[in-house]
Amino acid sequence: MRRFDFAAGTAVVTGAAGGIGEALAHGLARRGTDLVLLDRDAGRLAAVAAALRAAHPDRRVTTALVDLADAAATARVAEEVRRLHPRLRLLVNNAGVALGGRFDQVTPDEFGWVIDVNFRAVVQLTHALLPALKAEPGAHLVNVSSLFGLIAPAGQTAYSASKFAVRGFTEALRHELVDDGIGVTCVHPGGIRTRIARDARVGSGVPADEYEAARRRFERLLTIDPATAAEVILRGVQRRRGRVLIGWSARLPDLLSRLAPVGFGRLLALAVNRPARPRADAAHPPAAPAPTRPPAGAAAAAPAPPGGPGEPA
């Protein structure tokens, strides 16, 4: 399969109002790609689109608001995108949400919300827009899974289930679409500095004193800038890579899970729970925010681990 030509058409990117999605949009615009950006955050999405139009006035940038947890709304947006863009060069299913808490601390509805956004919406958008990809020779599909689509730590039953599902779906599609000349990439980000941990929901059965400490532990593992992650993804797309792991925080756990499929969990727990190194300004540390229980359905910091380190918001 030939290398991907970014300057030949239009890309749809979900979760484009921040994090990896925003960085991908800028990287694609620099490469000459027109953009259709999807997100649920109207303010941030408008700001991203304005910045892109200012920096790349020769690129067409359109936006659509959609809550991917709403299947009917997702179907309407997908139909509108397909009507306006009957030929698509690239689809990037990047949007994702997180839910903190052990399985017995979350409700079936909370669990289902994660599955809806992280997996069902990926399937729905891919199914709706696949004809537009098939109409464009040399098109490509990118689905963003996670480090937690490679390993499944405690406290992440919903998130890991959704991201393992994305991985399996994407790998099967890769084999199905090869004869159509469509490249397919599954992305597994490691510790990317995005808002997903801060914006995650907390299971209704999680004690308030658990999730704030866990969030602080995990935030120190988020060391990779979204722009760096986006460049890794786009290089992988250009080379038609089937699998892209971002950072040692993804590659090392992947290796350990294959070398020690059962015992690697103990090593992961040791790494996550190790004491933080003293800082130079430790004599005057900043005051930690007091944990507060978010209102039902509101975004909040997640308990350990806070849902796919550094996934797109």
TrEMBL record:
Record's keyword terms, sorted: Oxidoreductase
Keyword Oxidoreductase: yes
InterPro entries (alphabetical): KR_dom, NAD(P)-bd_dom_sf, Sc_DH/Rdtase_CS, SDR_fam
PROSITE patterns: ADH_SHORT
Protein name: SDR family oxidoreductase
Entry's Gene Ontology cellular component terms: membrane
Ketoreductase domain mapped to chain residues: 9-195
Pfam families listed in its UniProt record: adh_short (PF00106)
Oxidoreductase in keyword set: yes
Renumbered residue ranges of the record's region Disordered: 276-313
GO molecular function per UniProt: oxidoreductase activity
Family: Belongs to the short-chain dehydrogenases/reductases (SDR) family.
Biased composition (Pro residues): 303-313
